[in-house]
Amino acid sequence: MGSSSTAGTFDAHEARRLLGIATDAASLASQLVSTHAPARLTLKGDRDITSDVDFLVEKSVREYLRH
To answer: Which of 34, 41, 61, 62 is a good FRET partner for 23, with 20 to 30 A between their CA atoms?
Structure first.
């Protein structure tokens, strides 16, 4: 059994690469949350509240992951 990737699986190198991407995305989100105060709150469903910062984080992380 080799370490080459097959459909639906990946090797240790690919896992490390993906972990790095996820870590960078989480760091970006953390930085945005710690440097932006929510200015506007919005109800999201019956019990959930979201803020403009939540939307900023989502947009920024999605943009980061696309590139």
So the answer is: 41
Query: For the chain, what's the residue count?
Result: 67
Sorting pLDDT into bands at 50, 70 and 90, what band is 62? very high
Burial class of residue 2, CB neighbours in 10 A (0-12, 13-18, 19+)? exposed
CA atoms within 13 A on the CB side of 43: 3
Q: Mean pLDDT throughout 13-40?
A: 97
C-alpha dihedral, 53 to 56 to 62 to 66, nearest 10°: -150
Q: With 0.90 as the threshold, say if the pTM is over it.
A: no
DSSP 15-57: HHHHHHHHHHHHHHHHHHHHH-----EEEETTTEEEEHHHHHH
